[in-house]
Amino acid sequence: MGIRVFITGGTFDKEYNELTGQLFFKDTHLHDLLEMGRARLDLEIRTLMMVDSLEMTDEDRALIAHQCKHCEEERIVITHGTDTMAETAAYLQTNVTGKTIVLTGAMIPIKFGSSDGLFNLGSALAFAQTLEPGVYVAMNGRYFRAGNVRKNRESGAFEEKV
Amino acid sequence: MGIRVFITGGTFDKEYNELTGQLFFKDTHLHDLLEMGRARLDLEIRTLMMVDSLEMTDEDRALIAHQCKHCEEERIVITHGTDTMAETAAYLQTNVTGKTIVLTGAMIPIKFGSSDGLFNLGSALAFAQTLEPGVYVAMNGRYFRAGNVRKNRESGAFEEKV
Amino acid sequence: MGIRVFITGGTFDKEYNELTGQLFFKDTHLHDLLEMGRARLDLEIRTLMMVDSLEMTDEDRALIAHQCKHCEEERIVITHGTDTMAETAAYLQTNVTGKTIVLTGAMIPIKFGSSDGLFNLGSALAFAQTLEPGVYVAMNGRYFRAGNVRKNRESGAFEEKV
Amino acid sequence: MGIRVFITGGTFDKEYNELTGQLFFKDTHLHDLLEMGRARLDLEIRTLMMVDSLEMTDEDRALIAHQCKHCEEERIVITHGTDTMAETAAYLQTNVTGKTIVLTGAMIPIKFGSSDGLFNLGSALAFAQTLEPGVYVAMNGRYFRAGNVRKNRESGAFEEKV
Questions:
Q1: Are C112 and A113 an interchain contact pair (Cβ–Cβ within 8 Å)?
Q2: Phi-psi region of C152 (alpha: psi -120 to 50; beta: other; left: phi over 0)
Q3: H or E element at residue A135
Q4: Residue B93 — left, alpha, or beta (φ > 0 → left; ψ -120 to 50 → alpha)?
Q5: In the predicted structure, residue B83 carries a pLDDT above the cut 90
Q6: pTM
Q7: Which positions ≥6 away from D1 have C-beta within 8 Å?
Q8: pLDDT level of residue A48 (50, 70, 90 thresholds)
């Protein structure tokens, strides 16, 4: 069962620039994580963009939707910044049908020792293999349906809207 | 949706004894992993034993089956050594029905920087929430049905028997 | 041989705020590092400030010099941001005499898996035990005399001025 | 100031074999540590052997002494298992003169997240640059003179004999 993985950036892939002291994007750490997890899945991985999700535009979301619609796979995982993950999920739900799409990300950059990224990736890939068509957010070990999820800005955790 | 987690030991929870240079069991690292993964799940965690899975006896397996049958939850994750994980899964399939049971573990101890444990735990908890009743092994980002899985001793990866 | 350790902040002690995505100071990680290094030294540790070294003022430097002069110990290690470490070293050389003072820091926060902080701390404590009175910068495994050291902004490494 | 580094094995360089669950020697991690520490030292690194120090023979020690005597550098760091580090130090003191030789190692393998190896290496390289000719053990942030040091088997720490 092939799974398509789209990378869009987010905290997940941020690195520390030791010359400027700023966080920035270099390359994705997805391959390192899959190797660490000893994943033996049939994955097709593409980087669509490398942006902070607060800077993600409607055009960016249209591009992601286009890629989801036109890729061969029925099951898709998208790594995404957490700040607007719920918005992108809602957008994809409106614009893509008939596929299982799971968005995930990280609260702490992968390159930090204590990141949640590896855990989230493991759960997102599992949800992508087992959930029926639809758009979902996989965070905090749980899955949420697009349209009924938001990030709680105070706790940092995802929760149902109602 | 409550999930019961049973801890039985395995590489997952091995630590390095710096006085003897041997690997040994102290406490489980499960709580640390759940905190790192920022898990917000309704979990009930119990340590049943702390053994190397090569030393797991029929009596141990009977105890695990008993606990699976009599716990309140319909969904169960079991951390287990990889060497006899397939055997315990087959045993549970014969002895417990009507529940979703997912066994997982690690090839590398959690306390090592590069462990697959966090990835496996994320996927096991996701599979436990989504798979229909039955017994499964969750390793390498995949799930396998009990009875049709074995650990490849040469590659260290899990695979279907046929 | 007692060593006084003064903490002033710098990259060394920066943490990632997962709610804002910013780096910030919480507590010092010095005690964790000393425990990891299994240090068995007679250390007296004090936090003087927690600042980015680019924001360190003359008043801050006067405070550090005052503390160096008036503490009981003859040997002192100071953790400091790398950007103005050379400036503070020069200031201390002018204002404190008769003590062995070693400044050190990190290019990458301790909380990142790949920090140089533990290495630098090990070398700074060793230099503090063995160098004659004077002010030094300990970075890159080397020691430099105050007044003859600068941070190369392009490579991030410390080097002699001449 | 050139420093010669001799690698002899020990806990420092042990890895976890995920197929057998045993600790073993593969390659040295010294280069990774030097890179992490951003070391900018003039080092000449040689692996002399890769053994558990409990299995180190008189012949092995004679080889190490021979290499110390005949290498060009006046300053030498030796990575060594902790169990017989004091014995090798005493042997070298009897057999090599006129050079500064510092033995160091680790209580926890480098590949474990919480190893003391990076700290010890930083201090050993610093002591090698600053101590007068003689043979020393650098552990726990301190240095000990050969002949007056032993490993306390209960605490795991190094201490003076008297």
A1: yes
A2: beta
A3: strand A134-139
A4: alpha
A5: yes
A6: 0.91
A7: D42, D75, D129
A8: very high
Q: Is A95 helix (H, G, I), strand (E, B) or coil?
A: helix
What tokens appear for D45 in the block? Answer: 């690194």
- Closest CB to D38 among C40, C116, C127: C116
Measured between alpha carbons, how far is B160 from C69 in angstroms, rounded to an integer?
Answer: 71
Task: Please check whether residue D60 is in contact with residue D51, taking contact to mean a CB–CB distance below 8 angstroms.
Answer: yes
Share above pLDDT 70 across residues of chain B, in percent, rounded to a whole number: 100
pLDDT over threshold 80, residue A60 = yes
Say whether B157 and A33 touch across the interface (CB within 8 A).
no
Chain C hits for A23, Cβ within 8 Å: 21, 23
Residues near A75 by beta carbon (within 8 Å), at least 6 away in sequence: A1, A2, A3, A4, A99, A100, A128, A129
pLDDT of residue C26: 86
Chains B, D: CB pairs < 8 Å:
37
The beta-carbon neighbor of B126 closest among A34, A113, A123 is A123
CB contact under 8 A, C108 and A18: yes
* pLDDT tens readout for residues D105-136: 999 998 887 799 999 999 999 999 999 999 99
* Smallest Cα distance from C59 to chain D, Å: 31
Chain B residues 48-87 within an 8 A CB cutoff of chain A: none
Chain B hits for D18, CB-CB cut-off 8 Å, are 11, 107-108, 156
pLDDT, mean of residues B117-139: 98
pLDDT digits (tens, 9 = 90+) for D76-112: 999 999 999 999 999 999 999 999 999 999 999 988 8
Predicted pLDDT of residue B112: 83
Q: Does the distance separating the beta carbons of D18 and B23 come in below 8 Å?
A: no
Provide mean pLDDT across the span A98-123. Answer: 93
Which residues of chain C neighbour A114 with C-beta distances below 8 Å?
A: 111
Tell me what the mean pLDDT of segment A77-93 comes to: 97
Q: Do the Cβ atoms of D122 and C127 come within 8 Å?
A: no
Helices (H), C22-116: 30-36, 58-70, 85-95
Which one of B11, B18, B109 has the shortest CB-CB distance to D156?
B18
Give the distance from CA C148 to its chain's centroid. Answer: 17
Mean pLDDT of chain C: 95
What is the distance between the alpha carbons of residues A8 and A49, in angstroms, rounded to a whole number?
A: 5
